[in-house]
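Tutorial handout. Part one gives the primary structure; part two gives the three-dimensional structure as tokens.
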Amino acid sequence: MNEAELILNDDGSIYHLGIRPEHCAPLIITVGDPDRVPTVSQFFDRIDFTNQKREICIHTGVLGNRMVSVISTGMGTDNIDIVFNELDALFTLDLNTGKPLNSPTPLTFIRLGTSGAIQANIELDSLVVAEAAIGFDNLMHYYDPSMCDHPFAVSLLTQLGISKKFNHPYYTEGNSVMINDCEKLGMSKGIIATNPGFYAPQGRQLRTKNKLPFNLNELTRFSYKNALITNFDMETAGIYGLSQVLGHRAISLSAILANRFHGTFSDQPDKTVYNMIERVTNAIKKGFFL
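Part two.
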């Protein structure tokens, strides 16, 4: 593998993340906002390593008897592409030679994010774990176009009558064992739609005319084998898709801060996110997400 493929910094760290394999644990909590990293790591029993490069901040330490890292990804699946490929490289490749390790380490990802619900019955400040994600971005088209052929994605494309000018949606799933853990913790399941932006791609209009090829109400009403799309984000489909093709496990948890059906927003967003972080870190200490 040449130097333009696997790029390292002068200190031997991987290019964008700025870390070496010993700096990261195989259990990784991801957040979008770098300022949220210390909010997570304050629950660690011990912090052994910290680093920040651009919007990518990482803290690694101990939760109970487990090594764990929390890392910020920034917003969007374009950032997920960078972060997840480089994290994978740390645990599967010899960085000096670019050759595969004899014993690669599988990774476990837990995304702690925020989201807007599109179903009327999803309450503000609740927590939803995505059992699957439908991607309206185009990231996984470059890795595994067969995800577009999943019956859920094909049915959605057909029912919404999406123009060929728009990306074919793709479908990918989270880890079922960890999703069951989330249900035991009192979280509800849903299917999240990942969009390549926050405003027009999610049907918002400020000063621009909405160019969505369908009405949001159509997305709310869409059902496949009684499964509904429940909420929006900008990362999960990329997280699930890359975890699938790279052989890792992932779940995505969302604190519901908005309900698009009702047009409402939480009056305690910081508290809701804090409560989600506290619940998940306590669960890790108790042996969940093994």
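Part three, for discussion. The mean pLDDT is 95. Helices lie at 37-41, 77-92, 151-160, 176-184, 216-221, 236-246, 269-285.
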